[in-house]
Write a structure and sequence with these properties.
alpha+beta, SH3 type barrels, two-stranded antiparallel ribbon, 11 strands, PFA4/ZDH16/20/ERF2-like, Palmitoyltrfase_DHHC, EC 2.3.1.225
Length: about 425
């Protein structure tokens, strides 16, 4: 289960650089702003001050409660060894669903395997280091609520801190010929002003960054697509346009002269899409496995079937590579050049891993990004098969580490589906 039910599980999830930094920012902004709020607007002095303090306390409660729920509830995992009950033919299963060799089961519709969590995640959107968990079916609503309340609370804090700093810095210029009033105003010293500017910077930065992420999530919710599914649909349209396989070769252009588009099966209209995630309780609707509502004229496994076809196409374009230079998996491999060290794929820092390599090893390369390649080691002996199951044999590495060879699609598919993947070189580039 992805949820943290015991104190030990919760502590383990919190003790990570992402939650520690996020909690520090939340607590620092809240505590420092509360101090200024209680000094400059004493709640017992007037009803308006009391209302002001109450509103800020409510914002802080909403931010903390939604953040902790998003972190401790988790995204929800596909059960180990899962397979749909309505499909019994193994051949049909392989043509409609992807097999996860790590979780020893089929991937449910809309689920994806997360290398950081080590499990297949239901309706996976992305792995968020700030909550040390994925954003998925169970915590999508709470994560979205947090993205809404955090900018509102930080913007409120920024206004409060800005007013106090402005009053402190410019009050003497407005009252040069008069003494300071005897009211309960707390003028700041130099250190307090510096701390206030630090708080203001954190508040404004959080407002901009988290606010932008909220609008991205809102777009995903209204279209009922996760970040991964946007990518899948784009690749599906590209595959249909280019006629990559026999399944799409017979399709013709429409009356407007445009190539066919992939029909996404979960787009129910903006309002129904919105209700699929956002509700008063913040709890998910359905089991997150195979009970997703479908758009008209769409099948239950339309998206997963498209993923299987895309995986076959990726295997057909894979190449075999031999390692010619060692790589230890360091974060900044400056020995491979400044461009290689600085221009790394963003997914390395969020979800995917770096692959340590030794000369003589062989691997299948399936992706490229600038000076980096993504591949999977070919493990010949059964003793090394456990390393593959632990997802330790997949990752990114510098392009200068390997020499590429051609590899046919049948061998690439065999290696990807759990075979030893050892093939003979056909041509050396």
């Amino acid at each position: 289960d992805s949820s943290c039910r015991t104190a030990k599980q919760r502590l383990r999830r919190v003790l990570h650089w992402g939650p520690l930094i996020a909690l520090f920012i939340i607590f620092y902004i809240a505590i420092y702003t509360s101090r200024l709020l209680l000094i400059w607007w004493p709640p017992l002095k007037s009803h308006s001050n009391l209302l002001h303090v109450a509103v800020y306390a409510l914002e802080y409660y909403l931010v903390m409660s939604t953040y902790l729920k998003a972190m401790f509830w988790g995204p929800g995992f596909v059960p180990i060894g899962w397979r749909p009950i309505d499909l019994t033919d193994d051949q049909q299963l392989k043509s409609l669903l992807q097999w996860c060799s790590i979780c020893k089961g089929y991937k449910a519709p809309r689920s994806h395997h997360c290398s950081r969590c080590g499990r297949c995640v239901t309706k996976m959107d992305h792995h968020c280091p700030w909550i040390n968990a994925c954003v998925g079916h169970r915590n999508h609503a709470q994560f979205t609520y947090f993205l809404l309340f955090a900018p509102l609370g930080c913007l409120h804090s920024a206004v409060i801190v800005s007013y106090c700093v402005y009053y402190t810095l410019f009050y003497p210029f407005y009252h040069q010929d008069s003494e300071f009033p005897t009211e309960d105003y707390a003028m700041m010293n130099l250190w307090e002003v510096l701390l206030a500017f630090f708080c203001l910077g954190l508040a404004l930065g959080t407002t901009i960054a988290v606010g932008a992420l909220f609008f991205v999530q809102l777009k995903s919710i209204l279209r009922n697509r996760t970040g991964i599914e946007f990518w899948i649909c784009d690749k599906a349209d590209y595959r249909l346009e280019c006629r990559h396989d026999s399944m799409t070769a017979h399709l013709s252009i429409d009356e407007a002269g445009q190539p066919p588009k992939f029909q996404y099966p979960y787009d129910l209209g903006r309002m129904r899409n919105f209700k699929q995630v956002i509700n008063w309780s913040g709890r998910p609707v359905g089991n997150g496995l195979d009970d997703w509502p479908l758009a008209p004229d769409c099948g239950k496994y339309d998206l997963t079937k498209e993923q299987v076809l895309q995986k076959a196409h990726k295997a057909s374009t894979a190449v075999l590579a031999s390692v010619i230079r060692a790589y230890t998996g360091t974060r900044f491999p400056i020995s491979f050049g400044l461009r290689t060290a600085c221009c790394q794929p963003c997914s390395i820092w969020i979800e995917e891993k770096r692959l340590s390599l030794s000369p003589g090893q062989r691997l299948i390369v399936t992706r490229a990004h600038g000076e980096w390649l993504y591949g999977q080691l070919l493990l010949a002996d059964e003793q090394s098969q456990s390393a593959r199951d632990a997802s330790a044999s997949r990752g990114w590495f510098p392009k200068k580490c390997a020499m590429e060879h051609w590899i046919d699609s049948a061998a690439a598919t065999a290696g990807d589906n759990g075979g030893n993947g050892l093939v003979k070189d056909k041509k050396v580039q």
